[in-house]
Each structure stands twice: as C-alpha cells, then as structure tokens.
Design a protein that fits this description.
CATH architecture of chain A: Orthogonal Bundle
CATH superfamily of chain A: Farnesyl Diphosphate Synthase
Largest interface: A-B, 63 and 63 residues
Shape of chain A: globular
Number of strands of chain A: 2
Number of domains of chain A: 1
Oligomer: homodimer
Helix content of chain A: over 70%
Strand order of the largest sheet of chain A: 1-2
Low-confidence stretches of chain A: none
Mean pLDDT of chain A: 91
Largest sheet of chain A: 2 strands, antiparallel
Radius of gyration of chain A: 19 Å
CATH topology of chain A: Farnesyl Diphosphate Synthase
Order of helices and strands of chain A: HHHHEEHHHHHHHHHHH
Chain lengths: ~300, ~300
C-alpha cells in the first residue's frame, strides 16, 4: 500500500475504533450498568460517564482492537477489552487530576471530574471505573475461554498496579520532592511503569484474545514497549514546546513542577533522535509477528504516536 | 457441641484466620510484590502495607475461609481469596477516611493512611490495593480452574463496584446533603450495597471455591445477606451508644453527620429486635446447605457479629 493510502487507512481505522469504543462505553455505563437496583447512585454514574465519554483519541482501545485483528479476532471480545482498558486509563486521569495529586482544573478542554462534580465523587468515580474494568473483562461476554479472561485480568491488574501504572505515578510524585533528581535509567523505568505498561497491555491483550503463539506474543510485546516509550517522549516534547489550546490541558506544567522527563535530562534534540529510534524499533518488532502487510496499521500507529501534536 | 465449646471453637478459628491472613498479606505485600523492578515505589508499598497489616478482626477473610471449609476447601485457595477481599476492604477504608470523604484522623486507634503518609499516597495506596486484589484472585495460584478464578473476579468486582460497595458509599454521601432523608427501604438498600455486598461475597466465594451445588450456593448467599444486614445494624447501634476508646475510631459521628442509619429511623429498641431477627435468618439459612454440624462456626459468627462491642 502506498504511504498516503496507508496513512489514510490508519486515520480511518483510528476514527472507527474511537466511535466503536464511545458507543460501547456508553452502553456499558448506561442504565443497564445497574440492573434491577431500587436505589441508583445516579451522581456517581454520571461522574463515571463524564470521565469516560465524550472523546479523546482512544489510542489504547485502538491498539487492543488492531492487535486483536492482527491475530484474527474482531467484535465484542476486542471491544469489551478495549473498553475495560479505557476505563482504567480514564480512572487514572480522574485520580491524577485531584487536588492532592496534579491539581488540574482542565482535561480535554473540559473541567476535570472533581471540578465538574466534587472531590468525593471524583475519588469514587475513579474507584468505580477501576472496579468496573475487571467486571467487564471477567464477564463471559468478553471471551468464551475462561482461561483467556483470567489471563487478561491478571495482565491488566499487573499493568495497572504497583508494578505498573500506580507504582509509576507514585515514583513520579516521589521524584518531585526528592533531594536528588531521577537518573535517566530511573526516569525511563518510571515512565515505562506509569505510561508504558497500559500501552503494552493493549497489544498484549490482542495477542491473548487471538491465541498468538509465543514468538508472536514476544514480538507484539516488544512493539508495545517501544511504542510506550515513544509515546512518553512525544508527550514530554509536547509539554516542553506545546501550547495549552492544542493540548486541551495546561502546557509546560511538567517543567514547572520539576517532573522528571527525558527532555529535561537529554535536551530536545537528543529526545527527538531517541523518539525516531523507538519508532524504528517498534516497526521492526512487528515484522517478527510473521503477519506481513497486516501489521501496516500498527506500524502507522507508531509513526502517529511520535508525530502527534496533542 | 455445647454452647460454650462452640463459642470457644469460634474464637479460636477467628483468631487463627486473622493470623493466617496477616501472614499471607505480609507475604503478598512483601518484597516479592515487585519482582525484578529496578525502581521501587517504596513509599507506596509502605502505605499499602500500613493500611492492610497490623490487625483488625479480619471478619471477611474468616468468612471466606470458613465458607470454603464448609465446602471442603482449605489452604491457599481460600487464603488468597480472603486476602484479596481484605485488600478491597482496606482500600475502601483508606479512601473513605480521606478529607474529601469522611475526613477521619483515626482508624483502629492509629493515624489514618493520609495522616501517616499524605493524601496523594493514600489515594494511590487505595488504588494499588484495589488493583492488587484482582491480581491475586486471577493468579493461577488461587485456583487451578480458570473458570473459578474468572467467576471470583466477576463476583468480587460486582460486590465492590457501582452496584455494590462504591455505589453504596456514593449513595451514603448523596444522602448527607439531600433535602429529604433516605426512607427505610432506601437505607437498607444503601447499606446492603455499602457493607453487605462484600460480606455476601465472602461466603459466596467459599461456595465457588468448593464447587457448591446451586441449592447450597443459594443457602449460603441468604446467610451472607442476613449477616451483612446484621453487621450494619450492629454497627449503627455501636456508633449510637459506643465509646471512642473501644471503637478505635470516633463514636457518634454518624449522627453528627446526619448519616442514614436504621437506629435513626427505627430507634434503638426496634433496631435491636431487627438484629435478633436477622441472626435467626442467617442461622436458618445455614441449615439449607445440608452440611449439618459443620455450619456451627458460621452460625456462631452470626451471633458474634450481632454481639460485638467494637
């Protein structure tokens, strides 16, 4: 496929995944989310919907859907897993935005959850989304094989937990008040936990849903790790040079808060060179899946992650 | 078994379950909790340990262990499930104690997590414990049958989520600021979600681990529902008449905050009568498990829940 056509195919698939995810999240968090209850925590449900619906690129759901498709799986299995992952991503944003954490008022150009509702509701909405994610994955509707469902729960919990996202966020907060800044190795590790683990899970999940063989699973995992690292560097570069309007959140806040970033450690030029290298690593890894041209859309995703402006 | 011997047997088993749970939680949240990490979120792990270790009656773990034993299961399966449930109970206490929620300084006679650490760490410690609970349940070490593990994850997520604990907590907060107080039916429903769902899960989990037949599972579920309701009424009575020293937390705070309680709705005498009735319901339900004298320790647990002074 020529380069332009590939890029157009990618954009079409990204948009399609975003729409499918929005519709599925709306249904999962709809009135059916509380079957037969005589008392409904309506404000909580509203806050959970506010925090998950209404856009975003839906990069993580896209990666689940496309990785699953690479291994022959389409439909509810991939979409439900994609929604569960997005719920965890969204919960993390809700909690990260809280006054005790990053204290942000704006997210995707809208008031953050605790601003639109209140702090207690935001804490509970995050807790509710995190919990609901495991409900969705463990449900027989996600995959007929309970072994796959249990493996997905385990991988998702590890990606989201102490050794993954939550641990990375804790390290990031710790670093802000530490007497010595994080080294490059520590910054990379922190970022791999905080941001990389969920992105890696996204593509691992596709391999699990599709019963990929061990070699394919390893190849996809290498892609996921490189993509995750590229995503974070691109994010750091954006924060360093971006503007608030395009980001939909405040730019320059990482530097303000003295957060550990690769741009801060390496400078902009070296960070951009490292970004290019990671994109190449990601694309090379895809070749080892043995799926040939079918990997094109994921290769394009790596380019997209590196080039994004918001 | 004579009444005195039964009570002694119960206390011995309760203590034994508490010790086993403490040891297992210590191991799960030990240095092995982060295999191979070059960077450790040590403060977060410390906060997670602070919030789960060091006592408590461990009623929920006890119920998992004894329900599993009723259906022929002992050892790691029951203990790991018990630990996962306790992690969720403990996370809920950490988040409930936050300034934006109940704003409590004291828990089990010690500073609450956000007082001992800080608010951001307490939020993340709760998130980490909630996530780790699903990690533990989904791990093959918990049960050889992935179908059982997936079913446990699903039941636990439902008990802890929007239609269970988190939803109940949201309703409780909503009621504090509502213009009209909750009715009796609404209060019962809110309490069944907030407190009852996890207690019900505890005994359901035992039935799932042990492959109970549908009639046995229904009987145990009825026991769990009655026990959960009894637990909450006993809690309301304690709060209304208890003293701070015995409780290890501030007494009378429910009335102060205008929380919906059955004591407030019915008065103390009617609440006590309802409590007796629920204990009888719980004990009657046990007879339908067809496990005869083996149910004695769970019957004793229902008495204990009703009679507890802290």
């Amino acid at each position: 496929m020529p380069t332009d056509a590939r890029a157009a195919d990618f954009r079409r698939r990204l948009d399609h995944a975003a729409e499918a995810t929005e519709t599925a999240l709306d249904a999962l968090l709809g009135s059916g989310a509380l079957p037969g209850e005589i008392t409904r925590p309506s404000r909580l449900l509203e806050a959970m919907r506010y925090s998950t619906l209404g856009g975003g690129k839906r990069l993580r759901p896209f990666l689940v859907i496309e990785s699953a498709r690479l291994f022959g799986v389409e439909g509810a299995s991939a979409l439900r897993t994609a929604c569960a992952l997005e719920m965890i991503h969204c919960y993390s944003l809700v909690h990260d935005d809280l006054p005790a954490m990053d204290d942000d008022d704006l997210r995707r150009g809208r008031p953050t959850c605790h601003k639109a509702f209140d702090e207690a509701t935001a804490i509970l909405a995050g807790d509710g989304l995190l919990t609901f994610a495991f409900d969705v994955v463990a449900d027989p509707a996600t995959h007929e094989d309970a072994g796959v469902r249990a493996a997905l729960v385990l991988a998702l919990a590890r990606a989201a937990g102490l050794g993954g996202m939550v641990g990375g966020q804790a390290l990031d907060l710790q670093a802000e008040t530490a007497s010595t800044p994080l080294t490059q190795a520590e910054t990379l590790r922190m970022q791999a936990m905080k941001t990389g683990a969920l992105l890696r899970f996204a593509v691992d999940a596709g391999a699990m849903l599709g019963g990929a063989n061990p070699g394919q699973a390893r190849a996809v995992a290498r892609y996921g790790d490189a993509l995750g690292a590229a995503f974070q560097i691109a994010d750091d570069i954006l924060d360093a040079e971006g503007d608030t309007a395009a980001l939909g959140k405040r730019a320059g806040k990482d530097a303000e808060r003295g957060k550990a970033t690769l741009v801060g450690l390496l400078g902009l030029d070296a960070a951009r060179a490292r970004l290019d290298q990671l994109v190449n690593e990601a694309i090379t890894a895809l070749q080892d899946t043995g799926r040939g041209d079918a990997t094109g859309v994921l290769a394009e995703a790596a380019q997209f992650v590196a080039a994004r402006r918001s």
